[in-house]
Design a protein that fits this description.
Length: 463
Amino acid sequence: MPHTSGVTDMTQNKIDLLRAATEISVRYIEQDRTARLSVGDSELAALDGFGTIDADNPIAPAAALAMIDHLGSPATMRQSSGRYFGFVNGGVTPIGLAASVIAGAWDQNAALPIMSPAATAIDAAAADLIVDVLALPHESVASFCGGATIANITGIVTGRDHVLQQAGWDVHTKGLAGSPPLAVVLSEEAHVSVLKTLRVAGIGSDAVHRVPADSFGRLDATQMPTLDGPALVILQAGNVNTGHSDPFRAIIESLTPQQRAQTWVHVDGAFGLWANATPNRRQHVDGVDLADSWATDAHKWLNAPYDCGVVVCRHPAALRHSMAMNAAYVETNDDTRSLMNLGLQMSQAARAVPVWAILASEGRVGVADAIERTCLAAERFAATLVDAGVELLTPVVLNQALMAFGDDATTDAVIAAVQADGTCWVGGTTWQGRRAMRISVSDIGTTFDDVDVAAAAILKSRS
């Protein structure tokens, strides 16, 4: 009979440490609305303490937790405070956080159904809800991954393989050397992660046609090149600075039937794709559903815990063709939803658990309302600053507001002063040659009161 005392002791240890971690987490969350949003020099210096632990002299687990709290908590960026407006970083919903705790306790490997029936069932349900709520073609399949960059890689590699296969070239057996020329079209305002993705996909910059963008950051459809062979057209939903999107319908519907048959259209919609989930903002991404694949983040506008990206593909067979793997000990078939055959990873966390919890409890209307609230908050933010004489560089259409305070030096000084003050947090960027303050309202917990407090702090920092 196996010895069980060690297992019992380990189980009790898990319970004790989880309770301690929960108490630490609760204390942290209780300070969300009162703590400063900037990290001071003393808090930064204290982080060096993590490096003082010697591998030959480990500390007790409870001491490790206490150290994480004592040194780490003061140096975190409070993205769920309602007043964090940097980097298009979402907060986390209460249900998303709670569900992630359960998923963490489960500690499931979601690669194969046999590894975790629960994770597989929840993943499939969450994927169907994602496609439905985002109003994408019903035949599409969604797959969860680490973030929009990985989702972009997944969608673009799938598109690359598909259009070359249509041209009679099998990348799986022949590789890319000697393949038919592959044209890649994207906006000069494409996000840098897309350029990284193309490098990973073995596509050099010489194959990329950068199309000029307008003053809002949207690809100029009149400048599209003529496509006469295998092509990838990579479009953007939600410019990271302005929130504006490429004209999907005009671009995709301009392709002739022959061109469309040879072209894979992929959309980088890390946050902007969620505009398609709300009737009041859907017009800004009109025609986005005509694409072949889409990348987005659940950890941005849906406010799921980090990290959680999503790739959606209209052609499930093409996705499986590019991503599937098999071995004697992991046999699967095309009828089984196995996550390792829908993305780059084998072993992976049950990321879909908090996503399902959010979508199941919020529903279509709840998600749409949350997105609309953040857009209205961004509009209020911009209007308040404009009324005080601050320049708005592009119209607010989603959750991004781009502001300038005169010359570049003054704008940078205001941003630095706001960050040092700690009432709210905003970042800086360069937009069409000018320094700007980028305000991103991505935490659905942000209220109009938060906006008013933050705007007052920004105007105070200007003086």
